[in-house]
């Protein structure tokens, strides 16, 4: 099982899901804070529900308030980069670029990509932490 | 045997994830950490005479009072502790204004452990 956990963890970096920011968070985890990383990730996903809801509500309104959309995505991007979620962050940047260009269709399509990357990483991290807890 | 008193730090950020991470970082470096959600809260705290921190780490962009205004206000109240700003904003003008408000250091988000450690060690 430890091998499975190690493989899964390595895949986060090999496949570009997470960057060195995640490694820094892991370095802060110790016996005094054994679940530090999981706590942060859980908080991220909890908060991202709210942020994504704000984005979806803003995307339902016509015409788009590109400034508001960009600001909402700025918050989401900040949270994502805090845990090292580099693919999510990249899609957030793409969305912001579409906002700056006033490209509504681009925003809609890009938002779907943000959600997809967010969901993929969430599934991977949930599996990882579940296995880590079982192995502990 | 008495233990050395831990230094106190205040993290001011409207992003809960950043607050948890920064708190964890500062705990790691031995600080006793409190958190607030907005610049207005830290200013209110100090105006009420309840702010006594060795270190403040504040975000730049916050909904009610941003970090620039909060830092200016804290310095005008005579707050002399180290104040570190953090921001994901690339705009150089805004970053310069943030420094000029009275920061000791300004870092890009996400906070880098090594850079923060170096900053805290060089008083």
From TrEMBL, chain A:
The PTM Phosphohistidine maps to: 74
The entry's keywords? Cytokinin signaling pathway, Cytoplasm, Nucleus, Phosphoprotein, Two-component regulatory system
For domains, the record's comment is:
Histidine-containing phosphotransfer domain (HPt) contains an active histidine that mediates the phosphotransfer.
Which superkingdom is the protein from?
A: Eukaryota
Q: Which Gene3D superfamilies match?
A: HPT domain (1.20.120.160)
Record protein name field: Histidine-containing phosphotransfer protein
Q: Species lineage, top-down?
A: Eukaryota, Viridiplantae, Streptophyta, Embryophyta, Tracheophyta
- Spell out the GO cellular component terms annotated for this protein, sorted alphabetically and separated by semicolons: cytosol; nucleus
Q: What is its main location?
A: cytoplasm
Q: What does this protein do?
A: Functions as a two-component phosphorelay mediators between cytokinin sensor histidine kinases and response regulators (B-type ARRs). Plays an important role in propagating cytokinin signal transduction.
User: What InterPro entries does this protein map onto?
Assistant: AHP1-5/YPD1, HPT_dom_sf, Sig_transdc_His_kin_Hpt_dom
Mention one GO biological process in which this protein takes part, according to its record: phosphorelay signal transduction system
* Compartments, as annotated in UniProt: Cytoplasm, Cytosol; Nucleus
Residue ranges of domain HPt in the record: 33-136
Recorded coiled-coil stretches: none
One molecular function GO term is: protein histidine kinase binding
Q: Does the record carry ATP-binding as a key word?
A: no
Query: Which organism is this protein's natural source?
Result: Daucus carota subsp. sativus (Carrot)
TrEMBL record, chain B:
Q: CDD domains, alphabetically?
A: REC_hyHK_CKI1_RcsC-like
Q: Which GO terms describe its biological process?
A: phosphorelay signal transduction system
Question: Which keywords label this protein?
Answer: Phosphoprotein
| Response regulatory domain residues | 8-123
- Which InterPro entries does this entry report, sorted A to Z? CheY-like_superfamily (IPR011006), Sig_transdc_resp-reg_receiver (IPR001789), ST_Response_Regulator (IPR052048)
Please name the Gene3D superfamilies in this protein's record. 3.40.50.2300
Q: Which residues carry this modification: 4-aspartylphosphate?
A: 59
List the protein's name.
Response regulatory domain-containing protein
Q: What organism is this sequence from? A: Daucus carota subsp. sativus (Carrot)
